[in-house]
Design goal:
The structure holds two protein chains of two kinds. Helices cover 0% and strands 49% of the residues of chain A. By secondary structure, chain A is mainly beta. By secondary structure, chain B is mainly β. Chain B contains no helices and eleven strands. Classes of the chains: A mainly beta, B mainly beta.
């Protein structure tokens, strides 16, 4: 079984530029999560999707962050414009349902210059 | 909201020794407690989880114990090996939303 696939693995941009991350969850997993992991910390939830519906986006900074999950499979997370404090690893996870085991991708490491 | 505290932040053991990492949580309604292992440059990998209807679960050298009264759960690794070296995270669900993670424990196993 293929795992959660994320791309790109690394991204370096200048502040105020836009950036996008892509996630392909495990086949059949209806629930998809985006997390942000700062250095030396645990992952923190940004948004949770049930199929194509965003059901928990309370921690997503909506002034600059947006996400979509068209057709309820792949998902993209966008930041525009990026700020220095956005430097982190952005992780995608998927599960068969809410409160079921989550499986993570290897993340996108974002560096803002 | 839910708060998950994890201790210790770093743990160094000799190969073959046991390692124990403890987490406490605040939401008494929490009923699912996973443990993740994260290696450098990789995403967290689920290694074991436990639900609130059992007190202990074991998978080869790894075990998790849960004390719902005290609101804490622990990861036990026996016969540690160098490849067990990694950062370990516990997590617990916050009511109505997804997992809240601890700050992690860096385990170093020296041979």
């Amino acid at each position: 079984e293929a795992g959660v696939v994320q791309s790109p693995r690394y991204k370096i941009i200048e502040k105020k530029q836009p950036v996008a991350f892509w996630c392909n969850p495990i086949s059949g997993h209806n629930t998809l999560y985006w997390y942000r992991q700062n250095l030396g910390q645990g992952p923190e939830l940004l948004i949770r999707y049930e199929n194509e519906e965003a059901v928990d986006d309370s921690q997503l900074p909506k002034d600059r962050f947006s996400a979509e999950r068209l057709k309820g499979v792949d998902s993209t997370l966008k930041i525009q414009p990026a700020e220095l404090g956005d430097s982190a690893v952005y992780l995608c996870a998927s599960s068969t349902g809410h409160r079921q085991p989550q499986h993570f991708g290897d993340g996108t490491r974002l560096s803002i210059l | 909201g839910e708060n998950v505290e994890q201790h210790p932040s770093t743990l160094s053991v000799q190969e073959g020794d046991s390692a124990v990492i403890k987490c406490t949580y605040s939401d008494s309604a929490s009923n699912y407690f996973p443990w993740y292992k994260q290696e450098l440059g990789k995403g967290p990998q689920l290694i074991i989880d436990i639900r609130s209807n059992v007190g202990e679960k074991k998978d080869q050298r790894i075990a998790v114990t849960l004390n719902k009264t005290a609101k804490h759960f622990s990861l036990h690794i026996t016969e540690t090996q160098p490849e067990d070296s990694a950062v370990y995270f516990c997590a617990a669900p916050q009511a109505g939303t997804a997992l809240i993670f601890g700050k992690g424990t860096t385990l170093s196993v020296s041979s």
